[in-house]
Design a protein that fits this description.
- The protein is of the alpha/beta class and 559 residues long.
- It is 35% helix and 22% strand.
- The chain has 19 helices and 24 strands.
- Helix 7 runs parallel beside helix 9.
- The radius of gyration is 25 Å and the shape is elongated.
Length: 559
């Protein structure tokens, strides 16, 4: 941001590098001039901490607001806006352990249906809800489907592991009943022999084993491969076929059963759908949800090139996105994954849909008490990219330090948030949205105005009365620097907003018909806790009636 003088009038120029595009014309549209009206002010001019001083020497590098004082100062973790998804497993699924995760910052509990059965998951869910009740926390529940995975087979002779030698050949067979060894191994994909060609790579066990296709025997359903590296692998390891359009349904029979007979029955909050490749996959999930469609939100996991190629239509159809970097890094070159991450996060930000960044964020903490510096930087860069949530997998499910992993992730998110230019970010999101969609909807315009007003008057919080959570999502899209307090009658809406919407905290009320009363009570709670003092401003967003889709009012209240 910089000031220039034209004759006797002073103007402010806002520049927003966070949302710059490869499009050379976008740089022009991301610069907005507006009168500063400095001659009307009676108070001295203040230079915002996040401003970039430009002057006659041209623009400065980003990060000019990061000082030694900011580096060394302690930061209040309770101000964290980025949400944290934790995968549940044996290392953390007792009530006391779950309470520790909630205290450390968990807002969404992920149930990985690639493992376990309905009975075991239900027992864990009961313990989670007891822990959340004990802590008075609105913790959301995510059912992560197994999806159309391709896996290696079982071994003969009760072997638990086989060792493969670089340069030797191995045969892959689509007969999944075959008990394999280091010469021949089963693969769960029936169309393997018709899908790959000589020269193509096959990655096994997260890429720890690389095979190159030498020949294909279609009638026998077998593929002969060269082993490219020494490796030891266990049974049923994941397999990736980079560049191959896999002929498997996004929702398997198991996935449909898990969604209908566990997810819907237990009123989960999110379905994380694995390997979504096109918008029709999302429509199919909505059909499977039936009457729960709209209540249970869909998070599409983008895990291969086909999903990225159809990203725009998938984003339009889904409720949220997960950047699933594990399988994505097998399907596209690993050096391209960070570009894919930035692209997907940016587009989700503009669409106003929550985005989760996942996989190997603090991987070393599965065994180590501290993360590597690179891992902390990975978490921080995801926050700077604009992610709403970051996710832990093995770190919490079977790691040795689950609560510590959540704690350091929460601290890292806070530090990254402190480096953001929030005022510029609001303008960048708004300008990018108008550039892409032409205009804002009525409710989105109210949300945008509420954030701009809150920034201008330095409001203590934005209070949103929301039935479905849609208004809260639209307010969160514009990234206010202050807390968004969501008041709702729906426990599910409260969990979803608190779970994945950046900067949102939710509260369940028996009734929100008397808007003036509940807002006054909420402001009084801020004063009682010491978070606000007499005269502090609050921006309020609600509808004229307490029903879904009626948001049309923004006003200012004072403590």
């Amino acid at each position: 941001m910089r000031r220039i003088s034209v004759e006797e009038d002073e103007y402010i120029i806002d520049e927003f590098p966070q949302f710059e595009s490869e499009d050379p014309n976008f740089a022009k549209s991301s610069i907005v001039t507006r009168p500063s009206h400095s001659h009307l002010r009676t108070e001295p001019k203040r230079k915002m901490e996040s401003q970039t001083s430009i002057g006659s020497q041209g623009p400065e590098l980003r990060g000019s607001n990061i000082t030694l004082q900011k580096v060394t100062a302690k930061r209040d973790v309770s101000t964290r806006k980025t949400k944290i998804v934790c995968t549940l497993g044996p290392a953390c699924w007792e009530v006391e352990q779950l309470e520790q995760l909630i205290d450390a910052g968990m807002t969404v509990a992920r149930f990985n249906f690639s493992h376990g059965d309905h009975e075991g998951h239900k027992a864990c869910l009961d313990r989670l809800r007891q822990a959340a009740k004990n802590k008075g926390a609105n913790v959301a529940v995510m059912l992560d489907t197994k999806g159309p995975e391709i896996r290696s087979g079982f071994f003969s002779g009760d072997a638990k592991k086989i060792f493969l030698v670089k340069g030797e050949n191995i045969v892959l067979t689509s007969n999944y009943q075959y008990k394999g060894d280091n010469k021949k191994l089963a693969c769960s994909y029936p169309a393997l022999a018709t899908s790959v060609k000589p020269g193509q790579p096959i990655l096994v066990a997260d890429g720890s084993l690389v095979l190159t296709v030498l020949s294909v025997d279609v009638p026998a359903g077998e593929v002969t491969c060269r082993i490219e590296n020494n490796a030891g692998i266990g049974e049923r390891k994941n397999m990736n076929l980079p560049g191959v359009i896999v002929d498997l349904p996004t929702l398997t029979e198991k996935d449909i059963n898990d969604i209908q007979n566990w997810g819907c029955k237990n009123e989960v909050d999110f379905i994380a759908a694995s390997f979504v490749r096109k918008a029709s996959d999302v429509h199919k999930i909505r059909e499977v949800l039936g009457e729960w469609d709209g209540k249970i939100k869909i998070i599409c996991k983008i895990e291969n090139l086909e999903g990225m190629e159809n990203y725009d239509t998938i984003l339009a159809a889904t409720d949220a996105i997960m950047v699933a970097r594990g399988d994505l890094g097998m399907e596209i070159p690993p050096e391209k994954v960070f570009l894919a991450q930035k692209m997907m996060i940016r587009e989700a930000n503009i669409a106003g849909k929550p985005v989760v960044t996942a996989t190997q964020m603090l991987e070393s903490m599965i065994t180590n008490p501290r993360p590597t510096r690179a891992e902390c930087s990975d978490v921080a860069n995801a926050v700077l990219d604009g992610t709403d949530c970051v996710m832990l997998s093995g770190e919490t499910a079977n790691g040795e330090h689950p609560a510590a992993a959540v704690g350091i992730m929460a601290k890292t998110c806070c530090e990254a948030e402190g480096a953001l230019n929030l005022d510029g970010l609001y303008q960048a999101v708004r300008n990018s949205s108008i550039r892409k969609y032409g205009c804002l909807s009525t409710s989105e315009s109210v949300a945008s105005s509420s954030v701009k007003t809150a920034v201008d008057i330095r409001a203590k919080a934005i209070i949103v009365c929301s039935e479905s959570g849609n208004t809260a999502r639209q307010v969160a899209k514009f990234r206010p620097g202050m807390t968004i307090v969501v008041l709702t009658r729906s426990l599910q809406t409260a969990r979803q907003c608190n779970g994945v919407l950046k900067g949102c905290k939710s509260k369940v009320l028996p009734c929100i018909e008397d808007t003036d009363k509940i807002i006054a009570e909420t402001i009084a709670e801020f004063k009682a806790s010491g978070e606000a003092k007499k005269g502090d401003a609050f921006v309020v967003v609600h509808g004229t009636v307490a029903k879904e889709g009626s948001t049309n009012t923004m006003k200012i209240e004072y403590a």
